[in-house]
Amino acid sequence: MYTSPARISSGIIGSLAAALVLARPQRYLNTHGCPLANSGPGAYQAETTYFGPRTKAALACFQKDTGLIPPTGNFGPLSRQYVSTLP
Fold it and tell me: Which of 17, 18, 57, 87 lies 20 to 30 angstroms, CA to CA, from 51?
């Protein structure tokens, strides 16, 4: 189960993002139909602690695929609630 203490949105980088375990949601997105990139930073097994345009787009893809409306690309309350129910 994944839990996050705060809303995650574009521009978060470095130790704060690492503390929020940003690489773990990127890995989840990469392996569940909403990859950040095909290669390089953000790609599968090259996840980062930066929440930029690629993460936002992949998160919006995930939100759309799971029916979380509107698909904002931010990891807000609805996304956190949904993800908290995943194994």
Answer: 87
Q: How many angstroms separate the CA atoms of 16 and 40, rounded?
A: 22
Is 74 within a domain? yes
3-state secondary structure of 75: strand
CA angle 86, 8, 2 (to 5 degrees): 20
Instruction: Report if residue 53 sits inside a domain.
Output: yes
Q: pLDDT averaged over consecutive 10-residue blocks of the chain (87 residues)?
A: 50 48 80 94 90 92 93 87 81
* pTM value > 0.90: no
